[in-house]
User: Which sequence fits this backbone?
């Protein structure tokens, strides 16, 4: 090695903001060569992927539609990640939120009332939080690893949803298709932007960003989360309860993921189907890191990553690219971010002289 | 050593320089050690001793400088190369693996060939020859600190070293154990092994070493024959200024009992931990109670139990200001007026990556009224942090800098100040001057004394006997999780404390009785 | 009897990928590194092995290429965590997300193709009555997984290199100070773990179900991670645990086939629920965990020299 890492001592705050930009640039450069290797015109491909989807207002509304669940999930996850609580089962919690919210919608099928949507939202939050309460309980009571438990529960949630739409919640007039009835109008979230699918959920995502920012930077509970993540011993010195914070962060992230799931079925999807989300809950992990676990950063990262979904779709239609390119871009983004993170606490210096011969 | 001039030096360093970011650890350091010589390397924490020996042992690469070994210039690229030359090292923080056996630990630290068949027999033989009893089959986590040190020494001796480096070897030993170690070292010296002995304990250097090199701030500031110096003259070379003993009022009238511990039991579920057994004592307003003991005898556990980080099983076993708090957490105990200074500054007493004002909020949020409706009052917090910085002369531009940007001594002053400015009525500190420079240590000692003089009850747990004798009103000893009865400092000697630290829980009737020997082995020569 | 033997052959097939992946991760974790990217590395191995096996017509080449692919992805993890000091949990997650994406992208053109499965049975021996099929009716990789278990055990507990690896996982600072290259040793463990995960993944796409399906590992990488905890970092127990899980997943399939009236989706939850249950049972004993878990697991090492 001709280069070595030297500790900066104090973290470099400029780098905190510069590294995500660096990661995006490196991802685009790699994407350029990736498309070249796949035999596409890289400029055209990058255009199709990152510019074309948002070149009209409908595209922008779709971006907001996709960013909504991602941001909701990522805000919750980021609180946990800051406290070293690794909930990676947001996808499962989102699914449970969809199931709970959807069940309420079906219970009130063909009824009218302003209260149906709020009831569905509460049910969605409860569903997601309940699913996240399982790893919280098993972690605080039995010390079971929350990473593995929350992930295993995601697979269980998929099976549960599949069971429900194949059985109890299947549309009785649906020719045995594994789908529920289409929700009635009172169970469909109001559209914010006429002529598009952008719905009220977007406002709640924005609310989560603002509330999350206030909480993490100004409120005692945010302070506790930050302390326990950076120095667990200092948290116990200050008398912060680790168990309470595990419960809090898991319930919060589960609840927000559940809300995201409820908005998906009550908004763009409009019914319960075997697959609610194209991996928003997993993508939110990337978004949380890319946004530096900071609510405002997460909002920007959420929009950027939502773009990779749209880009994946447009690449699939126009260039015949496999849909999985989206996942590749998302993975690369996270890799480059983690790699450039080193610059925050260390500086790279040339390694002269006493190198081993 | 009179024939030294005609011999070739065993080790000769010239112009060793090592720059760390923001710190010149070694600045043009030169050092010569003759065969069979016990050479002291003397200096305060942070003087650059550890960096220098790590360079000799090949762990750290220097920026400049030359090393000669028996007259030949050598380049020690790694510890393996050092061992091949015949350099052995006993680390201050042992380089041992808790979950492995003694034999496995030794095998890891020696060459593959040496670690071959018959290793266990050879370990037993060496340890018998040199009076260092060891069972090769035991797991390290079940051994005492003294026994662990023996592993490191035996590991070196197996390689028949020509130079043995010992980094602060007696910091973990009782005075009696230290005496036994010196016997071994003198014998090795007589056999022609050179020893580089790192310490800041002047008395033992006077008793043991043939020559001394003194370092301060990364530079060599003096060389001397310890036998011809006084402890005071060496201390001045080491610290640079005349030392001022802390001022205390011996005529303090003791007030009410503010902290009372009665039959405190804290069992440990950690195989590496120590259980606290039936601890009782009280601390009155106006006094400083010192708790002496060797590392790993329950000090951390006691601190955790007192701070509330580990709760007692019985609420009535800890009382603060007449209130039972055994089941109350740290926050509740702070509300009653207790201040805490834990041993680890970075990561326990302070969050390394947080600003100083956030670290001030960490313990001061309730007592200093720095919150409203759960939200942080940032301006008030910053003001509080700034006043700590000012009153306790913490060297930092302002409170927006991270805790890890401060030197050890400065951060300790900040933490101490943060606690003292909350005007605690009970103050509990573990190793309050561990690893800080002499200036900061003196400052902290004075602050603790002032606090007691102003009517607080102060408890200081420390391994540094000099510190305890300098500031305490009474001293008790903790050993194997049990605590002796506290005695007035004026009625105690270092030797008595040493005996108690070795596990004799209360003073024998005759203080000059036979030394207590650990593990029932009788190899004292 | 025949049914029993057929079931046991299936159990072995379901367990073998877990044995490989978990055995690799065991070595990685013993060196003090937590690589959560097993799922991603298995998928890489699955597609790489399938593609190479399809292109070359040689199963052996397929398996080797799968090991290399898994090892390469692990090398990326090693670079990020060992040289760039990235958080191991986050990097492992990134590895999984990336592995899912890249395997699906590469596998795009292989969807719908099937491969001849790896041949089962040892000639002659499998014809022995009663025990023949039971013990000798498996494919070569099933036996290889047992050999690998023995080798890992021998390496960890009977060789000096294994002792050094365990020492690094116990206390990396001490290992560094007595002269071992912590980073180099961990790199080797990480790459070994990746290769094993790759082979485990390839076993899925070449033997169990010889075709490529996106995300065909279906959480087995995560189950392998749980197995290492379940086995409290001991190779023999990893083997036992893998067969327990293999058994449950086959049981679940057979119950469906036998027409048990429980919905198939509910039965399909079983392996995941059992994983959670065993995690809880093992983890509740914190003393046991502390005693066996490598003390430096997941901690970042940076020599300050």
Assistant:
């Amino acid at each position: 090695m001709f280069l070595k890492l030297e500790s900066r001592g104090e973290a470099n705050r400029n780098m905190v903001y510069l590294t995500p930009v660096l990661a995006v640039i490196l991802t685009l450069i790699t994407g350029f060569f990736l498309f070249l290797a796949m035999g596409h015109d890289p400029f055209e491909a990058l255009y199709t992927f990152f510019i074309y989807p948002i070149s009209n207002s409908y595209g922008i509304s779709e971006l907001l539609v996709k960013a909504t669940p991602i941001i909701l999930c990522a805000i919750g996850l980021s609180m946990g990640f800051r406290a070293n609580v690794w909930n990676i089962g947001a996808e499962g919690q989102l699914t449970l939120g969809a199931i709970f919210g959807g069940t309420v919608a079906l219970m009130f099928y063909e009824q009218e009332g302003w209260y149906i949507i709020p009831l569905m939202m509460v049910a969605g939050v409860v569903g997601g939080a309940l699913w996240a309460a399982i790893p919280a309980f098993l972690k605080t009571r039995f010390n079971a690893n929350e990473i593995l438990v929350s992930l295993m529960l995601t697979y269980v949630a998929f099976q549960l949803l599949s069971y429900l739409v194949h059985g109890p919640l299947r549309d009785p007039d649906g020719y045995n298709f594994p789908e529920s009835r289409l929700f009635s109008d009172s169970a469909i979230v109001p559209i914010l932007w006429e002529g598009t699918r952008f719905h009220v959920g977007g406002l709640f995502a924005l609310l989560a960003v603002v509330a999350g920012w206030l909480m993490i930077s100004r409120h005692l509970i945010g302070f506790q989360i930050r302390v326990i993540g950076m120095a667990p011993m200092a948290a116990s010195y200050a008398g912060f309860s680790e168990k309470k914070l595990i419960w809090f962060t898991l319930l919060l992230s589960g609840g927000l993921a559940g809300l995201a799931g409820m908005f998906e079925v009550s908004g763009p999807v409009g019914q319960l189907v075997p697959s609610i989300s194209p991996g928003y809950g997993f993508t939110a992990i990337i978004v949380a890191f890319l946004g530096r676990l900071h609510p405002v950063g997460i909002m920007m990262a959420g929009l950027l990553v939502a773009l990779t979904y749209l880009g994946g779709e447009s690449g699939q239609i126009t260039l015949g690219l496999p849909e999985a390119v989206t996942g590749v871009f998302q993975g690369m983004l996270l890799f480059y971010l983690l790699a450039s993170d080193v610059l925050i606490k260390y500086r790279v210096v040339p390694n002269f002289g006493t190198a081993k011969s | 050593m009179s024939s030294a001039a005609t011999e070739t030096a065993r080790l000769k360093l010239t112009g060793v320089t090592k720059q760390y970011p923001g710190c010149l650890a070694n600045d043009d350091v030169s050092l010569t050690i003759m065969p069979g010589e016990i050479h002291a390397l003397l200096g305060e924490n942070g003087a650059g001793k550890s960096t220098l020996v790590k360079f000799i042992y090949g762990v750290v690469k220097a920026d400049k400088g030359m090393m000669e070994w028996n007259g030949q210039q050598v380049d020690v690229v790694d510890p393996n190369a050092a061992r091949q030359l015949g350099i052995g090292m006993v680390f201050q923080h042992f380089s041992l693996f808790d979950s492995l056996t003694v034999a496995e630990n030794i095998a890891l630290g020696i060459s593959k060939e040496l670690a071959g068949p018959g290793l266990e027999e050879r370990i037993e033989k060496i340890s018998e020859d040199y009076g260092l009893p060891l069972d090769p089959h035991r797991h390290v986590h079940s051994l005492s600190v003294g026994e662990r040190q023996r592993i490191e020494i035996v590991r070196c001796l197996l390689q028949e070293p020509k130079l043995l480096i010992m980094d602060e070897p007696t910091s973990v030993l009782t005075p009696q154990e230290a005496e036994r170690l010196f016997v071994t070292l003198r014998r090795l010296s007589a056999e022609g092994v050179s020893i580089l002995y790192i310490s800041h304990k002047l008395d033992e250097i006077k008793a043991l070493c043939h020559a001394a090199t003194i370092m301060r701030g990364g530079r060599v500031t003096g060389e001397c024959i310890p036998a011809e110096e006084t402890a005071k003259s060496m201390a001045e070379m080491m610290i640079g200024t005349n030392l001022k003993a802390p001022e205390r009022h011996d005529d303090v009238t003791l007030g009410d009992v503010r902290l009372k511990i009665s039959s405190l039991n804290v069992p440990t579920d950690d195989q590496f931990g120590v259980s606290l057994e039936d601890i009782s004592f009280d601390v009155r307003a106006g006094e400083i109670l010192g708790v002496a003991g060797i590392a790993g005898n329950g000090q951390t556990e006691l601190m955790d139990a007192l701070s509330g980080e580990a709760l007692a099983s019985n609420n009535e076993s800890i009382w603060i200001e007449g209130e039972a708090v055994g089941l109350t957490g740290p926050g509740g105990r702070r509300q009653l007026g207790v201040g805490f200074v834990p041993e680890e500054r970075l990561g326990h007493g302070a969050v390394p990556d947080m600003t100083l004002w956030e670290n001030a909020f960490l313990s001061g949020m309730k007592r200093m009224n720095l919150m409203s409706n759960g939200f942080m009052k940032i301006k008030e917090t910053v003001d509080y942090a700034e006043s700590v910085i000012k009153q306790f002369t913490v060297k930092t531009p302002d409170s927006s800098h991270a805790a890890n940007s401060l030197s050890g001594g400065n951060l300790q002053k900040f933490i101490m100040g943060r606690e003292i400015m909350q005007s605690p009525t009970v103050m509990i500190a573990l190793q309050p001057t561990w690893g800080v420079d002499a200036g900061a240590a003196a400052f902290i000692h004075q602050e603790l004394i002032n606090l007691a003089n102003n009517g607080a009850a102060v408890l200081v747990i420390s391994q540094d006997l000099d510190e305890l004798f300098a500031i305490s009103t009474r001293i008790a000893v903790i050993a194997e999780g049990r605590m002796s009865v506290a005695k007035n400092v004026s009625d105690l000697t270092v030797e008595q404390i040493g005996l108690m630290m070795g596990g004799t829980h209360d003073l024998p009737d005759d203080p000059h009785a036979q030394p207590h020997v650990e593990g029932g082995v009788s190899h004292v020569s | 009897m025949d049914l029993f033997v057929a079931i046991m052959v299936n159990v072995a097939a379901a367990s073998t990928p877990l044995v490989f992946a978990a055995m690799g991760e065991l070595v990685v974790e013993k060196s003090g590194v937590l690589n959560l990217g097993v799922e991603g590395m298995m998928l890489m191995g699955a597609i790489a092995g399938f593609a190479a096996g399809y292109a070359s017509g040689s199963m052996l080449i397929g398996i080797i290429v799968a090991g290399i692919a898994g090892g390469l992805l692990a090398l990326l993890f090693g670079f990020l965590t060992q040289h760039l000091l990235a958080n191991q949990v986050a990097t492992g997650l990134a590895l999984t997300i990336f592995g899912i994406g890249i395997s699906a992208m590469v596998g795009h053109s292989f969807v719908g193709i099937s491969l001849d499965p790896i041949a089962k049975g040892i000639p002659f021996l499998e014809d022995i009555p009663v025990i023949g099929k039971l013990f000798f009716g498996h494919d070569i990789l099933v036996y290889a997984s047992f050999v690998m278990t023995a080798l890992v055990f021998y390496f960890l507990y009977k060789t000096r290199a294994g002792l050094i690896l365990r020492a690094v996982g116990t206390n990396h600072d001490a290992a560094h100070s007595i002269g071992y290259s912590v980073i180099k040793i961990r790199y080797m463990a990480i790459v070994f773990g990746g290769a094993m995960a790759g082979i485990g993944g390839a076993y899925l796409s070449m033997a169990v179900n010889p075709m490529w399906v996106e995300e065909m590992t279906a959480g087995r990488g995560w189950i392998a991670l749980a197995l290492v905890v379940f086995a409290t970092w001991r190779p023999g127990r990893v083997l036992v645990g893998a067969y327990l899980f293999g058994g449950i997943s086959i049981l679940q399939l057979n119950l469906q086939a036998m027409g048990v009236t429980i919905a198939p989706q509910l039965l399909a939850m079983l392996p995941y629920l059992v994983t959670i249950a065993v995690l809880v049972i093992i983890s509740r004993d914190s003393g046991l965990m502390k005693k066996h878990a490598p003390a430096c697991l997941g901690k970042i090492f940076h020599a300050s020299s």
Summary: The domain at 2-292 of chain C is CATH 1.10.3470.10 (ABC transporter involved in vitamin B12 uptake, BtuC). Chain C has a mean pLDDT of 90.
